[in-house]
Design a protein that fits this description.
single chain, alpha/beta, Malonyl-Coenzyme A Acyl Carrier Protein, domain 2, Alpha-Beta Plaits, 2 domains, six-stranded mixed β-sheet, four-stranded antiparallel β-sheet, 10 strands, 16% strand, globular
């Protein structure tokens, strides 16, 4: 296999039971979990596949910690069988896994970053009644136009949060505003699928998450960042990045910025990366990549390890 791009999963890949077989069968995965347990002074397996797993999705801190732990466990197992990345990147939360695996922050500091990020998102979302909604079947230009019209009429906080593929757009805002958007689209558009994501908050919304972003930036200044050991591609900045000040700023900026996954993948392909592996327990990113381009290969870490 040519050295691939490692694409680290985001928050949407969690499910109760995540990582159980990997952790029980691979020493490299167990070592990652042990590090998480030591830093957190807790048992993260309980939140992955133990008694607490059913409640994990309702707690941003724990869902983010479990996803990061499982992402890194998969990456470490791939390294143990001789598969290393040309470049690391990640979807939203997954960017922190990419930072850790690239050597930009230590795993211990990476755990602290994820913990603080989740705590802040939980804290500031409690002040809001916000969520996110997937719009599948309309392109970016159309969704932007609809949101612009609604905001002019009603002074709404709606924002495009993710551009996952040409026809999958995620909108962030207050719940009543999202339902107004839903009604407008259903009344005026055909062949559109709309799904409330129930993620607990209006992530990547500059109007609603500004305080969390500002506080996160202050926290990040307490963490040492290092020049990447492996190449890192920032989805927030849409470029290869090795300037640690830019990388640090991008992490706080990410909380209030669009995740333009579609454009990030296009740029990586234009840089002649044509082999990708989704790192984590999911296959969401693989499926999105297929929608973006049919000319590159993408496997999942789970399938590669199962065949090894």
């Amino acid at each position: 296999m040519n050295e691939p791009v490692f694409l680290f999963d985001g928050q949407g890949s969690f499910f109760p039971g995540i990582g159980k077989s990997l952790i029980e069968n691979y020493h490299a995965a167990r070592e990652i979990i042990n590090t998480f347990n030591t830093v957190l002074q807790d048992n993260i397996e309980e939140y992955c596949y133990g008694k607490k797993a059913i409640m994990t999705k309702k707690n941003n801190m724990w869902i983010q910690l479990t996803i990061t732990a499982i992402n890194l466990a998969y990456a470490q197992v791939l390294a143990a069988i001789g598969i290393f990345p040309r470049v690391c990147s990640g979807h939203s939360l997954g960017e922190i896994s990419a930072l850790i695996f690239s050597g930009i922050v230590s795993i211990e500091d990476g755990i602290r970053i994820v913990k603080k990020r989740g705590e802040l998102m939980d804290y500031y979302s409690k002040e809001l009644s916000g969520d996110m909604m997937a719009v599948i079947g309309l392109n970016l230009e159309k969704v932007e136009k609809i949101i612009s019209e609604l905001k002019i009429q009603n002074n709404m906080t709606l924002e495009i949060a993710n551009i996952n593929s040409p026809d999958q757009i995620i909108v962030s805002g207050l719940i009543d505003e999202l339902y107004s958007l839903r009604k407008y689209i259903l009344d005026n558009e055909k062949k559109v699928s709309l799904t409330m994501l129930n993620v607990g908050g209006p992530w990547h919304n500059p109007q609603l998450m500004e305080k969390a972003s500002e506080e996160f930036a202050v926290f990040l200044d307490t963490i040492p960042f290092h020049i990447p050991e492996k190449k890192f591609f920032s989805v927030t900045l849409l470029d290869d990045e090795n300037d640690i000040d830019h990388i640090k700023k991008s992490l706080s900026l990410q909380l209030v910025s669009r995740v333009n996954w579609n454009r990030a993948v296009e740029i990586l392909i234009n840089k002649n990366y044509n082999s990708f592996i989704e790192i984590g327990a999911g296959k969401i990113l693989k499926n999105l990549l297929r929608k973006i381009s049919s000319n590159v290969s993408c496997e999942t870490a789970t399938s590669i390890i199962d065949k090894s």
